[in-house]
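Slide 14.
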Amino acid sequence: MESTSQTAQQTQTGQTWNASQYAANGRFVADLAKDVVTLLAPKAGEQILDLGCGDGALTEQIAAYGVEVTACDASTAMLAGAKERGLNTVAADMRELPFVGEFDAVFSNAALHWVTELPTVAQRVHRALKPGGRFVAEMGGLGNIAAIRTALQAVFADYGIDAETQAASRYPSRDEMRGILESAGFTVQSIEVIPRPTLLKSGMEEWLRTFRNALFNSLSETDRQVALDRTVALLKPALCDAAGVWWGDYVRLRFHATRQ
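Slide 15: predicted structure.
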């Protein structure tokens, strides 16, 4: 019988998360987060919310600073992994956070781009913070995985599916995100776009199975493999190097904002 942490759980994006699969194919997400944790600068005794915490691998690192950290995610399957690490967890949609004035900081890594209603998220985060509290995050920015998304659009058009709409993701520009934050009542301390080609140790097919499974699962089993093969073939000239190593064309958007 599968443990809870191995059970797939669908979130509000239509994407389905599996903790074991994510650990195998997506661990680089937490491994590459050193700089955004440094920007957070956790201080012992602070109350911090990790928004979109996944299986808690990064939350655990933040907790080691001596803070009281709450791991929050919409996927109960992923939260089960965080619970196994001994973390305090809350299951919540980031667009409907129940907190009011509870946290010194809200932190998020590689999660905000999984919803399109970013203004609503910014407003809920603002409400969750204490006066003067900070919102520190890294997410996909404008141009993130552009080659991958273009290939998916081309392949899924043959099935009458708009891959972008199905993915339900949003990758804002620096100026767009600044405007969203300021409209929600934040003062932006810093915001930058960071191109970051990212090694995909498990290869492109496993990346697609992990991070775009809602798309492929909408097809029959036969069509699914055909679509995977076509997408990988389209991407190989652009994202696979001469040694056969795959790279994701990642662009990160990192910001530090404070509640007014």
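Speaker note: The chain is about 40% helix and 25% strand.
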